[in-house]
């Protein structure tokens, strides 16, 4: 496998650097906004602006890549993201923050688009699952590890902004020096909401509601934790716990959905997620907060990949790429609405309302899935096995000329799977996904130390729509 990594080694190094900087700003910006005196509603609008920029980027950046290529696009987007972050450290008005967060969301979309389309084209078919799972591992490790920087200095200073900006800009270096030939331009996929809904109602509704939940968490989770009296360092640990939960359950939940009706797995996960969200809102103090944050992440973050897998199960014309892109777009639209709605509720009912809103969204998804289960008890079987990958831009799900067709979920497996006694053999994707969970458990050694602040002290049943 080492030899196969050579064409994408510089890209993966850039990913690690880039997402460490991005992971730091994800938590830093809400904390800084709170210090500036922004209300929860204001902070929610800035988060919605970021996700709106991401959605617009999905629609506009493929044209830029087609015009100037991947490497130039990556450099430009990294420069815009860096400049936006530094300007945020200097700005104190809500209008400036909304505009700058939109621009950083747009730029981050372009960076993800370059990374994922490049990985898709350059990864050999026989180990594409392994490389993409390695990418998922690097993504989650970088974002979670970045939270530990929050203990280095106070969010009110410019130090953490400078560190994050340096990381974003340094991510250009490995890609800029690569000798690997850049991939072909990104293909654009048509978004057809009506066809999407008619194909898989459970996937569409759950993806949108799941986007509202996770979007609200990323934008306002640090604000909730800070409102509980936690230090900036402990806020980082709170966020790490949720990310660890999402990483830990991706693989087992996915494997379970490969053997049972995915709708039943989605129903169970959303129902448990609603309970976890309520408990997180009720117990925001002490070590219980870490436990419930872990449970919340474990039940809410795998939903996106399950939705894409379920949608693919209902495809009859081979349009896996269009379906994966559509599900992602619904998830992103939900992410735009989530922070604004959750922030309004926090302003009216207090910080815990963010998690009660998440509980409502997950409960609604659970009830809708139960309704569809009762309406359509028959199954179509599983078209493609689950692949535990992070939420991706539509570019990652498109056909790249000269590359094998691949969709976001189910991508990790080549056309002819090796078998052992008639059953699929473990794939590189499975191995790397399991490695992700293990590495996450042992990496953040700081999380195992005494905490400060208030911490201290399917074949059996397939799927229909």
Features:
two-stranded antiparallel ribbon; 1% strand; 17 helices; 465 residues; globular; mainly alpha; 69% helix
Return the domain count.
1
Spatial strand sequence of the major β-sheet: 1-2
Q: What name does the CATH topology carry?
A: Growth Hormone, Chain: A
CATH architecture, by name, is Up-down Bundle
Can you tell me about this structure?
The protein is an all-alpha fold and 465 residues long. It has a single domain, classed as Growth Hormone, Chain: A (Up-down Bundle), CATH 1.20.1250.20. 69% of the residues lie in helices and 1% in strands. The protein has 17 helices and two strands. It has helices at 2-5, 9-35, 40-68, 70-90, 94-122, 128-146, 159-170, 172-176, 193-199, 201-227, 232-259, 262-282, 286-300, 303-313, 320-349, 353-375, 428-442, and strands at residues 419-420, 423-424. Strands 1-2 form a two-stranded antiparallel ribbon. A hairpin with a 2-residue loop joins strand 1 and strand 2. The longest helix has 30 residues, at 320-349. It is globular. The chain starts with a helix and ends in a 23-residue tail after the last helix. The model is unreliable at 392-463 (pLDDT under 50).
């Amino acid at each position: 496998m080492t030899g196969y990594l050579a064409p994408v080694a510089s890209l993966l190094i850039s990913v690690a650097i880039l997402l460490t900087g991005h992971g730091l700003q994800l938590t830093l910006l809400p904390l800084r906004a709170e210090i500036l005196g922004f209300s929860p509603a204001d902070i929610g609008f800035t988060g919605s602006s970021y996700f709106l920029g991401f959605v617009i980027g999905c629609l506009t950046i493929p044209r830029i890549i087609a015009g100037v290529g991947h490497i130039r696009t990556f450099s430009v987007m990294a420069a815009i993201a860096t400049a936006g972050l530094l300007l945020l450290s200097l700005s104190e008005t809500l209008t400036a923050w909304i505009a700058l967060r939109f621009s950083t969301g747009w730029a981050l979309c372009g960076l993800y688009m370059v990374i994922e389309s490049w990985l898709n084209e350059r990864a050999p078919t026989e180990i594409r699952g392994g490389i993409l799972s390695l990418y998922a591992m690097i993504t989650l490790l970088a974002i979670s590890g970045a939270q530990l920087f929050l203990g280095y200095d106070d969010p009110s200073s410019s130090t953490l902004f400078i560190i994050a900006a340096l990381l974003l800009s340094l991510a250009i270096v490995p890609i800029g020096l690569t000798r690997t030939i850049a991939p072909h331009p990104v293909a654009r996929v048509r978004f057809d909401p009506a066809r999407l809904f008619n194909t898989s109602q459970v996937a569409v509704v759950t993806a949108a509601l799941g986007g509202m939940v996770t979007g609200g968490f990323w934008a306002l989770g640090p604000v909730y934790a800070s409102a509980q009296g936690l230090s900036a360092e402990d806020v980082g640990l709170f966020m790490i716990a949720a990310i660890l939960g999402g990483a830990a359950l991706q693989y087992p939940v996915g494997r379970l959905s490969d053997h049972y009706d995915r709708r039943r797995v989605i129903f169970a996960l959303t129902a448990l997620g609603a309970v976890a969200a309520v408990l997180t809102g009720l117990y925001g103090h002490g070590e219980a907060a870490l436990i419930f944050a872990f449970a919340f992440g474990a039940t809410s973050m795998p939903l996106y990949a399950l939705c894409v897998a379920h949608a693919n199960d209902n495809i009859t014309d081979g349009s896996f790429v269009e379906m994966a892109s559509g599900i992602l777009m619904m998830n992103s639209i939900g992410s735009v609405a989530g922070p604004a709605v959750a922030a309004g509720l926090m302003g009216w009912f207090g910080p815990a309302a963010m998690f009660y809103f998440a509980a409502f969204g997950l409960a609604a998804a659970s009830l809708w899935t139960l309704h569809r289960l009762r309406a359509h008890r028959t199954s179509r079987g599983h078209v493609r096995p689950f692949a535990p990958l992070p939420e991706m831009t539509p570019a990652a799900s498109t056909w790249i000329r000269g590359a094998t067709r691949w969709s976001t979920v189910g991508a990790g497996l080549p056309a002819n799977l090796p078998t052992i006694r008639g059953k699929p053999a473990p794939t590189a994707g499975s191995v790397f996904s399991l490695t992700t969970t293990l590495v996450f458990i042992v990496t953040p050694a700081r999380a195992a130390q005494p905490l400060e602040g208030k911490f201290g002290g399917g074949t059996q049943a397939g799927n229909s729509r």
